[in-house]
Amino acid sequence: MITAIMHIAILVLVYVSSWFVISLIKKRNDVADIAWGLGFVVIAGYCFISYASGPVSLLVYVLISIWGIRLALHIAMRSKGKPEDFRYRKWREDWGRSFIIRSYGQIYILQGCFMLIIAIPIIIAGISPVLAFNAYTYWGFIIWLIGFGFEAVGDYQLMIFIKHKKSKSDIMQTGLWKYTRHPNYFGEVMLWWGIFIIVLPFHNGLWAIISPITISYLLLYVSGIPMLEAKYKNNEQFQEYKKRTSAFFPMIPKNNS
User: Fold this and answer.
1) CB–CB of 61/44 below 8 Å?
2) How far apart are CA 87 and CA 194, in angstroms?
3) pLDDT tens column, 125-141
4) Tell me: the pLDDT tens digits for 2-48?
5) How many Å apart are CA 111 and CA 228, to the nearest integer?
6) How far apart are CA 67 and CA 41, in angstroms?
């Protein structure tokens, strides 16, 4: 397993470095968001080519590829014709003359490290002996499907809302967004827990738990909810929405009247 991780680490290094070059050419670091999902597709493709693949392994590759390609396409369409995302633009301003070296290290290399950690279930599915479908496969797939649905539908609903909203300060509060302030983040966490359950029966499958734990921590406490909600700290409509709506787990909204 260590050898496989080392090989994929080299692959990931080349991959994120290539996207760093693209970011310099395009003069926008938010291409890293497009690179994120596609990176897992590349890892899944490498495992498919390099290792013997049984039905469960193939399922993992397919599910990861569906998720990664959809996410990359969504982000690419969302950012088309728009300025660089506010998070990356702020870093560009804050980092000043050290912007290039810090971008490479703190965005692309760091992203590659997290990509490698979160891809552990894909690697385990690749290097393990062939495994037939089992109860874990079906339960994991159901959880993945629920998560993928929340992420895809939530992203779509938000895209339509942004396209038609009348005021820049308006906040999405309908559809899935009525029950959780971040249905897309909830969905992403769910689908990675689903992948973990699918991989669990493999040899060393328990090690795959590092993947959903890592993505859960990042979205709940680091680069997901905290960073995004900080943008709306002075938005009164969002603050009211925040009082009655669950941050993460879908729940019936509170009645604050």
Assistant:
1) yes
2) 29
3) 999 999 999 999 999 99
4) 888 899 999 999 999 999 999 999 999 999 999 999 999 999 999 99
5) 18
6) 9
